[in-house]
Amino acid sequence: MRGYYLRYLQVLVRFLPVAIAFLRDRRRFLLFGPSRQVTTAVHRERAQRLTDIMLDLGPAFIKVGQVLSTRPDIVPPTYVEAFATLQDEVPEDAGGDPMTVVEAELGDDPAVDLETLEPVAGGSLAFVYTAEFDSESGRERIALKVRRPGLVSLVERDLRVIRGFVPILAAFADERQRYSIRNLADDFEEIILQELDFAREASIMAEIGENFADEDRVVVPETYDDRCSKRLVAMEYVEGRKITDDDALEAAGMGRTELATLIARTYLRMGLVDGVFHADPHPGNLAVTEGGRLVIYDYGMSQRLTRQEQDEITDLYRTLVRRDVDGLLNTLIALEVLDPDVDRVAVRQVLELVIENLEGRGDVTWRLIVTELLSMLHDFPFRIPPNVMLLMRVGTVGEGVCRSLDPEFDFIAVTRSFLVDYGFIEGEFEALLEDVKADFRRSAPVVAGLPARADAVLGQLERGELLVRTEPVERPTGGDPGVGYAVLAAALFVTAGLLAFQEGAYELLSLAGALLALAQYVRVRWTSAL
């Protein structure tokens, strides 16, 4: 416990100056005084200072920053951008020497030549080596991702420290943010502890590899399951060059837009079709081979979805692309982003405003949609569950990677095309027909009951049981009643045309609609002649 308290004090001292600055924004003299306005430049400076502090405090806090970069329900956009730059830049000796793990796990394995071991990359939780390996097909090189030996106890201690700060953060947070903060520590813990389980990572990596076995343009390194453990992942060594390397793309015969489209569609397939996805698509984890194939590395931050989660997240993409406000509201509640008891009328008005703000803009991006959506929802109790958060990270980080390749890359258009190709949404004409059919199905019971209701009303009129009072209204000068009939005729013609493409009872409805339209047209002509 002594180590815990010392660490708690160390973290408190590091973050205290920034915390005081935030409190002074609300009360200039901490306990009293007016609030103060802070420029964007000051916020950028603070965000960079927080980023540096997280880097200094080590692996757990680096992961906290990376997770916060996907939580615009808690963190303002300026800080989201700064935290998104946090990469796993940690010295090799942090958390102990990984070589001790390699020797413990593979020291007695005659197939792995530890004399040829070479370090190739380092991260906050692990280090990566390559080594010569005697396989059935001959001598080859394999990659070994090794967990830092003393890391689990350090991370668990830091997670307890973070949990200890949550009540303090909640006490000073706005009422609208407390709903998210209450779940914050649990989300951190779930994501970070999953990353520490390398057996889980190897399993997900193998599953994604099987899903893309039929895809010639995507490479998922094959795992050697008999040599994987909770501390080590042994995998095929696949060489690739950075996706931002123009020479590599030229040698592979790939254009930047082509590669960006391949990346976007690959990640959409993982999340929406396969239900298991790699959640960390930053440039360091993506490469391109000489043959023009996309290589994906490091599956520590990855996730599986249940069938229900997969369907609900697909609904989220579908409703966003189609600008379906009611569908979007229902999906956000189903995903537990919004509380089921939320004021649906008020939220619907907010979502309509979000759609209105995005309509007609030529610079609409996935990041802009997410930012606009979540910033407008801040007045309501909402949170982002871990699975939704990771998929949002995939969307925003992946879009950033695609736009670094092609600044004009339209992630939304690619998403819409993907959804159409996989049958998640219909083409524009098919979508219109589906809407008409849905409206007809909803209104059919009402229409079927109209004759009986009309007969009842007429009977009341004949018996003098129904009295209708109206106020005399002067007919406006210059008005043309034929305009109304013309509008009605046009609507009936359009409806008849749409139903004409359908079979069965829809053909009769189409004929009836055409006859009514013709009748209204004759009435328009008759009215105009008077």
From TrEMBL:
Classification via Pfam families: ABC1 (PF03109)
InterPro entries: ABC1_dom (IPR004147), Kinase-like_dom_sf (IPR011009), Prot_kinase_dom (IPR000719), UbiB_kinase (IPR050154)
Protein name: 2-octaprenylphenol hydroxylase
GO molecular function, one term: protein kinase activity
Organism the protein comes from: Natronobacterium haloterrestre
Classification via CDD domains: ABC1_ADCK3-like
Domain Protein kinase: 114-488
Lineage: Archaea, Methanobacteriati, Methanobacteriota, Stenosarchaea group, Halobacteria
Family of the protein in this entry: Belongs to the protein kinase superfamily. ADCK protein kinase family.
